[in-house]
Amino acid sequence: MMTSGADLTFRRAATYTVAVMGGAVVVALLSVAWMSIGSGDRAESMMECAGGEKYVLVFGPPALLLLGGIGAFVQTYRVWRAGGRWQIWQGAGWMLFVFMLIYASLSAGALTEA
Questions:
Q1: pLDDT tens digits, residue range 33-59?
Q2: Residue 100's Cα: distance from chain center in Å?
Q3: N or C: which end of the chain has fewer CB within 10 A?
Q4: What's this model's pTM, rounded to 2 decimal places?
Q5: Ramachandran quadrant class, 84 (left: phi over 0; alpha: psi -120 to 50; beta: rest)
Q6: Helix count (H) and strand count (E) of the chain?
Q7: How does DSSP classify residue 3?
Q8: 3-class DSSP state for residue 8?
């Protein structure tokens, strides 16, 4: 059974998107684990006594999603120049950008906590 070019492009774009999103989740989980190790029972909230790890939690995953989105748009251009199905990669880039904005807006409140 042969797969068409569109199926192969979709599979590559989906794998890329899942890998970038998985990397962002891993960075978020590792920074939460780092914060929980350092906080102990000294405060009501982990964010109150978090130092640099708070900034990793807030800026790490969105930065990874931003770089992944830019990478997807670079691949969009490459596939377009080759005459392939570039729309799939453009969708992957926009999806990563949307998740970046959602995560950044939800985590921005952590910076305002004292």
A1: 887 776 555 555 555 556 677 788 889
A2: 6
A3: N
A4: 0.83
A5: beta
A6: 5, 0
A7: P
A8: helix
